[in-house]
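Appendix B. Chain record.
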Amino acid sequence: MAIMQAISALLGQLQAGPMQERCYAAHTLASLLEAEEAKYKALVGDPHTSPSLRNHYKIGKLLNAIKDEEELYDAVVDQWVSARSATLEQQVAGLRLLLACLDCWLFQYPLTEEALVEKLGHWAVGGLDKAAVLGDEPPSTLQGLLEEARQTYAMGLLAIALANEEYGDEVVQTPMVPACCSYLQRAVMKHRPVVAAAAQAAGGSTTVTSGTSSNTSGGTAGEQQQQQQQAAESPLPPMLVAAAAAQPEGFPD
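Structure tokens predicted for this chain:
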């Protein structure tokens, strides 16, 4: 198969050669995994209900090819992610490749290494109070772009790690959870005008007063068309739109 030949070539390129080319191979390999996993999810829905089913699709064959190169996988973890001497470019490429694999495999090595999970937490939450949210201008420098990418991939890996009950119980007692919640709140609040337009386009205008909301149908056809256009252009995913549109009710007494 042509795709397996391409994977074999990428794995070979990942083992030797100039570091820039090795990082490029890691990104290319991760991109293929991401694309094939997306196709698989579109076909079967929840991909984790029957993990062995993947073996009958391209994504399973790609993952098995990587598993067969266990020493190479371990080298990426040790030299590109865990090592203090790793460059930012290596960290980003290594984290992306690990995330592409572990998004399918879920909790397993190297997320079983507590020191690595601590490092992921540092990368994910460090500077989160100033991190860009969806719709912000991208960083203007390569350094900024790489740091943002490292934070993003580290956050994804950390989310998988925290599915482990032992890690999860520890993290809820640290500042990590409030930091993430604060970031999500900032992202949601920034896009509330867009969310209001989406809500209006979906079912009439929304009026908010003194912490309460009420929906009233109506509005001119031109206004509704403009609202629908604003909702369609929203960079927010539907789940985030719904979350932002909901009015907080607080905790019950």
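Further analysis of this model is presented in Appendix C.
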